[in-house]
Write a structure and sequence with these properties.
Blueprint lengths: L16 E2 L5 E8 L5 E7 L4 E10 L2 E4 L4 E4 L8 E3 L9 H8 L18 E6 L2 E5 L6 H14 L4 E7 L6 E9 L2 E6 L3 E7 L5 H4 L2 E11 H5 L13 E16 L5 E17 L2 E4 L11 E6 L25 E5 L1
Length: 326
């Protein structure tokens, strides 16, 4: 505001919204210290946001610092604050500004943490929680994986498939400080909090290291006859251990058991007279890589039939796990 106290418009503008084409996004943040406004720009799939502070000089909006990149989870940290917009028909804020009674927000730089119901495990760099009793941990983990793969900026959306209902849902996500909150579906709410995965012994997870390998039907049979006349063009993705090791998983009926195994079954693409089923998608990017896999043994199971790979514990759609490339 100039010394005369009169309100004015600048010729320069800041942008908030999404581009009509491509993945360009923009938003405006306020300054907690009252030292200007921040222009935020990013691509929809990016994990960082470009930040530039602007201030008013001689009734013009000018850059007040170099453009810097910050992690998308830190957009509203430090001096940057999310703006609560007032309808243009409500002049109370302008009146308060003109009269000198308006004061900048005094909220803490750290946003209040979301209320959570249950911790479901972790994905790389994020602990995963449900935010409502209607949200299953299985779905929460799927949302978290989608966020890790595609999120960018303070606001974004992801699609996730529920292992329970078999339906896909659109989730609207907001990133604030070190927390990401996604809502949608049937009153579903998923909360991700930044931080390293907890030690396996503290979280009840078992840790396995090995190489993710794509194997043919002949390779998993290893000279044995096919028990189900299995198609030779089937594909099996497994975690191959350096040497056999003890694996704990569930038996049919719910009892826990431990056996020495050479591999874990991750996903497969099987061709049958009734069609083709393909569950390799989540694992394809890891083929040929050495990984660390943390698994909740109460959600992994031994097969109760002669499906391939024979006897290998299954990391299925209901298994709680996190994976890291070593």
């Amino acid at each position: 505001m100039p010394e005369s106290g009169a309100l004015f418009n600048t010729q320069e503008v800041l942008i908030s919204g999404a581009g009509s084409a491509g993945g360009g996004r923009a938003a405006v943040a306020s300054s907690r210290s009252g030292s200007g406004l921040y222009q935020l720009t990013w691509q929809s799939v990016a994990q960082s946001v470009d930040v530039e502070r602007f201030a008013v000089e001689d009734q013009s909006l000018v850059s007040a610092g170099a453009k810097t990149a910050v992690a998308s989870g830190d957009v509203y940290a430090d001096d940057r604050a999310e703006i609560t917009w007032t309808p243009s028909t409500d002049r109370s804020v302008l009146d308060a500004l003109e009269s000198g009674t308006w004061a900048p927000p005094t909220s803490s730089p750290t946003p209040e943490a979301s209320v959570v119901v249950k911790r479901c495990g972790a994905v790389p760099g994020q602990s995963v929680y449900t935010g409502t009793t209607e949200t299953s941990c299985e779905f929460a983990i799927e949302v978290a994986r989608a966020v890790i793969q595609s999120h960018g900026g303070p606001s974004f959306a992801v699609e996730a498939r529920s292992p329970i209902t078999k339906a896909s849902y659109s989730m609207s996500c907001q990133s604030s400080g070190t927390e990401i909150t996604c809502t949608g579906g049937n009153n579903a709410k998923v909360v991700l909090r930044a931080g390293e995965d907890p030690p396996a012994e503290a979280s009840g997870l078992d840790v396995y290291e090995g190489t993710v390998v794509s194997m043919s039907t002949a390779e998993v049979l290893d000279g044995r006859p096919a028990p189900n006349n299995d198609n030779p063009n089937n594909e099996y993705i497994v975690l191959l251990f350096d040497s056999p090791q003890d694996v704990t998983a569930q038996r049919l009926g719910g009892e826990s058991d431990t056996e020495q195994k050479a591999l874990l079954a991750l996903g497969d693409k099987e061709i049958t007279p009734y069609g083709t089923s393909d569950e390799t998608g989540p694992w394809l990017d890891y083929v040929g890589k050495r990984v660390g896999l943390k698994v909740d043994p109460t959600t992994m199971y031994f097969p109760s039939d002669a499906s391939l790979p024979l006897g290998a514990p299954r990391v299925g759609e209901h298994t709680a796990y996190s994976i890291e490339v070593l």
